[in-house]
Request: fold
Amino acid sequence: MTQHRDKSGFETRAIHAGYEPDPTTGAVNPPIFATSTYKQDGVGGLRGGYEYSRSGNPTRTALEGALAAVEEGERGFAFASGLAAEDTVLRALTKPGDHVVIPDDAYGGTFRLVDKVAKPWGLDHTPAPVDDVAAVAEAIQPGRTRLVWVETPTNPLLTIADVSAVASLCHASGALLVVDNTFASPYLQQPLALGADIVVHSTTKYVGGHSDVVGGAVVVRDLELAEAIGFHQNAMGGVAGPFDAFLTHRGLKTLAVRMERHCDNAERIVEFLSGDPRVAEVIYPGLAAHPGHQVATRQMRRYGGMVSFRVAGGESQALAVCDRAQVFTLGESLGGVESLIEHPGRMTHASVAGTDLEVPADLVRLSVGIETAEDLVADLDRALG
Ligand code: PLP
Reply:
């Protein structure tokens, strides 16, 4: 079925798209095809098009079909990590001499890839605040800007980009819009339906959902873009292996119920932190005072499981909160069933220190898990000291 015309509900697509029960055994889950190569029926006689597992593997194919369906795209591609997915997009769609616009509070690894790997190779970039359409317009160099790269919500400041407005801007100037949908997950937001051209994910996060696998994804609607991404996926080779593809696909099936609980718990925590004098500022798109609240309400189903806050006592207190938390595990990453706490300035975003993308030193980021909400609130109360 043409994926974005599959009108069944999100949960149905997450559970069934991409795979039919195995015709020989009836297995309801895609087998893990632990094979690098495939027997040919005579030279060139490929069964189902499978030739070599960098080019294609049935476990990965099942995941890729499901990813396309939940993102309302036409083709999905699964990678070894989110950054492998991002690198493939950059190299498939830009060349030396081109220019890209990136968020001025991009995930540190994305910034490192663009600034330390792509820039020396000849790709120029300009950071812009993704919530300011006029500033994004100003950053675009017509004829030279190939991609506008947006995260929404951003990591870690949870800034909201208006995907439809930025898409119109890009298309008027001949650029493509890439949306990193990692923080929202496909359950809360489908950027392709809002006009974006390319969606990327770190599936390590909400899609996998259990902090047990690293992976990435690209989803597109346009078949020419799909051709370019598919060619580079094979030519560059950063593919998801069959074991990782299986785990990621298993996670995707429960994304909807997990996200509902992530959002419930995040809202409870935001309510608790918002009234607390030990907290200088709570950053959550669900708050009416958040500058992106209206846009988020329009383009997201709910506001997500990520919460950032600034600690009234400054950096030393922010570090102490991270150290004292017990139910919240001190660690990088996000989107798993367990709650995580981190200090972006010293951890996930250390690579942007000293640049325009530096994050506040008193900032703490929470990935709110799906544990009992009261335990999470009590843990933060204790950790705030
Ligand atoms: N995009 C965002 C928003 C992320 O938070 C991350 C990782 O933290 C990535 C991309 C990179 O993904 P990975 O770590 O799977 O390479």
Q: What stands out?
A: The mean pLDDT is 96. Residues 81-83, 107, 109-110, 151, 155, 180, 182-183, 202, 204, 214, 216 surround pyridoxal-5'-phosphate (CB under 6 Å).
